[in-house]
Specification:
The complex is a heterodimer of chains A (434) and B (154).
Chain A (H helix, E strand, L loop, with lengths): L26 H6 L4 H7 L3 H11 L11 H6 L10 E6 L9 H7 L1 H15 L3 E6 L4 H16 L15 E6 L9 H8 L23 E5 H13 L1 H5 L9 E8 L5 E6 L4 H8 L9 E5 L8 E2 L10 H6 L8 E6 L4 H15 L5 H18 L7 H12 L7 H21 L4 H10 L1
Parallel strand pairs in A: 1-2, 1-4, 2-3, 5-9
Antiparallel strand pairs in A: 5-6, 7-8, 7-9
Chain B lengths: L3 H11 L9 H12 L4 H11 L3 H10 L11 E6 L2 H5 L2 H12 L12 E6 L11 E3 L2 E3 L4 H11 L1
Helix pairs in contact in B: 2-3, 3-4
The chains are: A alpha/beta (434), B alpha+beta (154).
Chain lengths: 434, 154
Amino acid sequence: MTVDPTEEHVIQWDKVILPDIPNLHTLDVYLANGGYKALKKALALKPDEVTDQVKKSNLRGRGGACFPTGLKWTFMPKQTSKPKYLCVNGDESEPGTFKDREIFERNPHLLIEGILIACYAMGIATAYLYIRGEYAKWARMVEKALADAYTNGFIGKNICGSGFSTDVYVHKGAGAYICGEESALMNSLEGQRGYPRVKPPFPAQNGVWGCPTTINNVETLANVPVIVEKGWEWYSKVGAAKHPGPILVGVSGHVNKPGVYEMPTGEPVLEIIYKYAGGIPGDKAIKAVIPGGSSTMILRGDQLEGVRMDAESLKAAGSAVGTAGMIVMDEDTDLIQVITRISKFYYHESCGQCTPCREGTGWLWKVLARFELGQAKNEDVDLLMDIADNIEGNTICALGDAAAWPVQSMIRRFRDEFEKRTIPEDRTKEAALA
Amino acid sequence: MFTEENLKKIEELKKRYPTTQALTLPVLWLAQEQFGCISEETMKYVATLLEVPLGHILGVVSFYTMFHQEPCGKHHVEVCTNISCMLRGSSRIVDHLEKKLGIKMGETSKDKQWTLSEVECMGSCGSAPMFAIGEEYYENLSTDKVDKILADLK
């Protein structure tokens, strides 16, 4: 792709999640820019009407699974004697993902407003915002915003005189990737080890403390006030038809301008790399791209033409939009080193409940380390595939799959890289046999 | 023993959750902040305070990477070496830190000033490479920048 580096972004997009407004994180500036208007608008509607709008907007979860948010909300029981809870997933630990951090820092009130609208729609009186422990500084920023919102009557009893009351609390994690998995998050919130739960029962029936619970990602909820304010018709027409709305794409790795960029879904991956992120240092070629966080399948640089940043397009290309944390690798990248590091991560983060994941992630890492050291045998490529295939689908939660997919896709799309790194004598032997 | 201020915080926290067990993580955070690490003695204290078995507390402490059972150095340097940082030269930062501080990854200096650890992705991919010291993130690192940060902390 030939791109003029001096050319400005071609996309005209008025940012709504992270607009460039100085001090938007303060309540005063947020209010001066129309803040909490969506909340008041929502409070004037019936809760079901709010859910209906979110459903019609076609908003899909931004935490990785792309599940329709409005539909998820309808799973919550209307008649129940138990309290209902909202858990906001701000555990953001997927390597390559750094978008929620931007929301905490630059627009925390938008998130709070989204949380409150969600609570109103589902009749929830308590929301917990689970923030990863490493983000202690950002948790403080959110707590400041929450305190200001409490003081001004946007949270707490009788919100804006509507009769609706809800509390929002920050709950800090302590450094476990698995707590980003919704059922592990609930266990962590209950004060336990972050072990994922077997489903069913699903959280909407039996969630935190055995009560009906909905878990939504931070960015997902930050989209909710936008839907209420601008209307579902507007929202559903932004970006890709089946996966609409603004999306925060984090670009990292070998690009000139790494960072989080807000754009409509469905932007071409190559434009994101070249126009938003300023292209590859030294004008090198792209060897590979991981489009949506480390657990999404790796794509070859030569298969990116026409691929777009939305759920459907990336699925068709053999990967996923995930958390939209895009990791770019130039032509000189040692992919064996990359996949070994990714596998080490999953080995470290496996919670240890399920044997295929607990043992398999360690085996993957150890066998990959043999390739990194040039001590692998020819048959080790198939061995890796075999281990990955035996983890996938055989575990309680998706961490097993997340560990298997990068390895499987790396072997499928870059088999030669593995074969180049086996013991030289082994390679000659293979050639002689052939 | 927790300070009066922390005990007050715990009372406030109790109002937020339907069970006291849910206070495990928040109270362990307070304990680590006050005592520097979570020793067996501290675990026993927290278990009594929350009326949960000691085994539960040990289970939690040993599960979460950020809870330390041993004291760290005065400055705990946590370097991310995960993929986005790796692609932008985190190994150079690691080598430089090891040389400069005279300790290897996972070690604490004899004078107890420095602990060096490798950590998983910290969500700083757009400003890689990075390390954290305490709650502070130091980003877009170069070896020169590392020298300056270390000198300022000494």
